[in-house]
Amino acid sequence: MPGLMGRAIGGGVLAAGLLTQAWGQGIYTCVDAKGRRLTADRPIAECNDREQTELGPSGLVRRKIAPQLTAVERAAAEEKARKALEERNRLADEKKRERALLTRYPDRATHDKERAASMALAEEVIATAKRRITELATERSRLDAELEFFENDPSKVPPKLKRQIEENTNSMEAQKRFIQGHEEEKRRVSARYDEELAKLKQLWAHRDAPVTGVVPTVNKR
After folding, report:
1. How far apart are CA 47 and CA 219, in angstroms?
2. Most buried by CB count within 10 Å: which residue of 23, 92, 107, 116?
3. What is the rounded CA–CA span in Å between residue 136 and residue 196?
4. d(Cα 131, Cα 138) in Å, to the nearest integer?
5. What is the DSSP letter of 49?
6. What is the DSSP letter of 38?
7. pLDDT along the chain (221 residues), means of 10
8. Which residues contact residue 136 at a Cβ distance below 8 angstroms, ignoring those fewer than 6 apart?
9. Phi, psi values for residue 29, rounded to 5°
């Protein structure tokens, strides 16, 4: 009997020690899907889908443990985090572009000067193409005059003259397409400068706005 009693007492002391150790580490409690109140010395697997409470040694709540996410919820959370990161990166890139824009165009005069230079270059390219069209038109008049000699018998038109007329026509069409393309490019460049200017006006205004809320320093003598 003393032996049995000793072992019982020893077991009780051991269990009490383990319980005390568990309480020192924290006790987790929750109500599972079947409505049962569960308690353990570690997070409870049966309550992964619901909130758990961790209690301290005094029985006070240490923290609330949120439910673990399902695969669908986890994917949605990851997608939300990805979009948030993309937005932060976009805003950072936008700020970088704004700083670069202000560095390149510190004032309206600088922007106007570069715009005028770009427009002048585009106009010169177009003017060169138009001069070429004038030259081709003069050449075509000469070729048409030669062609009049064979008006009564077109079958006798020399192959060389036919080839020259064809080349003239092709060159004329190419120059017209070239001018049209550069006219469109000029409009795109002008629109880009308009867009830049609208953005720069905001940046200049923000940069040059007086700083408020700053207490001036008073020199005391």
Report:
1. 67
2. 23
3. 39
4. 11
5. T
6. E
7. 47 45 73 93 91 91 89 88 96 96 96 97 96 97 94 92 96 97 96 97 93 59 47
8. 168, 171, 172, 175
9. -140, 150
Q: Which two tokens stand for residue 44?
A: 């409870």
Two structure tokens written together for 155: 């079958």
pLDDT at 64: 93
Q: At what angle do helices 108-147 and 159-208 cross, to 10 degrees?
A: 170
Q: At what angle do helices 71-104 and 159-208 cross, to 10 degrees?
A: 100
What tokens does 77 get? 């959370």
List Cα–Cα distances, 216 to 209, 212, 219, in angstroms.
17, 10, 10
Joined tokens for residue 165 = 């007329």
The structure tokens 């000469």 sit at: 142
Using CB atoms within 10 Å of the CB of residue 194, give its burial: 0 to 12 exposed, 13 to 18 middle, 19+ buried: exposed
For β-strands 52-55 and 37-40, DSSP reports them as: unpaired
